[in-house]
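This part of the workshop introduces the protein records we will be handling. Backbone structure tokens are a discrete shorthand for how the chain folds in space. Once this layout is familiar, the rest of the handout is easier to follow. The record below serves as our worked example for the rest of this section.
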Amino acid sequence: MTTRLWKITIRIRRQRGTEAVPTWQDFPLEINPDETVLDAVERVWAFHDRSLTFRHACHHSTCGACGMRVNNIEKLTCITPIHSVTHNNGIIKIEPLRNFPIISDLVVDMSRFFIDLENMRAPQVITNKQGRLEYESIGVTESDLERLADCIECGLCVSACPVAATDPSYMGPASLAGLQLSLTAKLPDISARLADNQAGAWRCHSAFECSAVCPSNVEPGYRIMDLRKKIMREKFFQWFGKKEAKA
């Protein structure tokens, strides 16, 4: 049985660089409603405008490259079906992620985001004078220092975060979620020191927008709340002269 094609309009926010004035451009499409939003964007590029810039790679929600705002909500467009965000003769509004510098159209500069994630890894602060990592001296193995296994580093949580929209110094939900993992492991002092400041765990407003849009169910909102709890526990045991907090 042949699926009836839908007639839809793809409305894309166009912008060349952060300082440029954004405009909206409409593209009519006939498309299978079971196809994805990324399929629609690729079709716009292929048949309407080859100057459109966007990111994509794996097409199955592994790489996180195709994150965009679809009808004002952060989505991985490679796994977002057309029928889930519009209807026949409807409009799909597509924008770049918020809270990142815009490079061109739907492509944002995520370099700072990746640097921040890397800096949250404990090995960056556990080095000897020669800069080599030291694990055994503190009783930690390299496996204890992995980043969140399920996080695909798509940046959707940062785009959705209302605090990141108003405070560029905020560490962000992905970085704080990574620190929560380090605190859960064997690095309470280091992780607490990185997160226990006004740009860290205490800046979060507990909106949980980050968790709502996370495609991997990492639950950064919960992890930030748990991070606060662990920081306070560490402080409690420091105040009362304990060397180590019991689980």
